[in-house]
Design goal:
CATH class of the largest domain: Alpha Beta
Strand order of the largest sheet: 3-6-7
CATH topology of the largest domain: Transcription Regulator spoIIAA
Shape: globular
Order of helices and strands: HHEHEHHHHEEEEHEHEHEH
Number of domains: 2
Strand content: 5-15%
Helix content: 25-40%
Structural class: alpha/beta
């Protein structure tokens, strides 16, 4: 959407292409394509097109090239998907399934995380840094805000971000999950009193964090009675053995973490 917003501002025609065959039928000056997941299949002939630029974690994982600043900090084109969404709705799709295309401004105020988890695409960052003001991606005509920050509570000036969000008057949510291990009474209190939409989502990735997760979740429960969800990460061997013993232990850890969460 940022690419589209920038090129439209330069008086270019921009089309959303959802069928590879249309790349042969039309003459485009430039083609941009990205993918999120490494196992998404893309025809080789598409990747070899002379006027294509590929990017994203699906192609390069943590070595993916960043967008240039003049595009990264351009307001997204929130109309890029209009035709596609309308087609889905005409074919019986439900508006709720396309709410992020219709009702949300999407962006991130901070970038990066200091955790350096081996399984995470953000492992190359050393800290959380300020990325962009909310006004950069805010569409006043949209009711809600969707934030893609990697670790908002790891940013030293997190409170100013929440103040800015509150000042928009719009309800917001964090899609990436929030680092429960960094929770404090002040953070819990402010987050709980904010104009939050949807469920609060945290994570319990490692059984080794048991005591800390139990402590922080109880702290959170003292401040918030709303629905709270935690991702339970599995299927990653931190010792890189990948033998039968790992899989047995991994399954045991999954059930143990679920049991702990059910008891709090």
């Amino acid at each position: 959407m940022k690419l589209s917003g920038y090129y439209k501002s330069q008086n270019n025609n921009v089309n959303l292409v959802t069928d590879y065959n249309k790349l042969m039928e039309n003459q485009f000056d430039k083609i941009f394509m990205s993918k999120v997941f490494t196992d998404t299949k893309v025809p080789e002939w598409v990747i070899n097109l002379p006027n294509i630029k590929i990017g994203g974690t699906g192609f390069f994982y943590d070595k993916a090239e960043h967008l240039p600043d003049y595009i990264e900090h351009h307001k997204p084109d929130y109309h890029l998907y209009d035709e596609w969404v309308n087609k889905q709705l005409d074919n019986g799709g439900k508006k709720l399934d396309y709410k992020y295309y219709i009702d949300y401004s999407i962006g991130r105020t901070t970038l990066g995380c200091f955790r350096k988890c081996e399984f995470c695409v953000n492992k190359n960052y050393d800290k959380v840094v300020l990325h962009s003001p909310i006004e950069e991606f805010l569409d006043e005509n949209r009711k809600y805000i969707c934030l893609l920050d990697d670790n908002i509570l790891g940013y030293g000036q997190w409170k100013t971000i929440f103040d800015s969000l509150q000042n928009t008057g719009k309800r917001f949510e964090y899609k990436q999950g929030i680092d429960l291990r960094l929770m404090t009474d002040e953070k819990a209190r402010i987050l709980n009193k904010s104009k939050y939409i949807g469920d609060y989502i945290f994570a319990f990735d490692n059984i080794a964090d048991r005591e800390l997760i139990e402590k922080k979740l109880k702290l959170w429960r003292n401040n918030c009675k709303r629905t709270t969800k935690l991702y339970v990460f599995c299927g990653f061997d931190r010792n890189n053995n990948w033998d039968n013993e790992f899989w047995i232990k991994d399954i045991e850890d999954i059930f143990e973490r679920v049991k702990i969460l059910n008891e709090i």
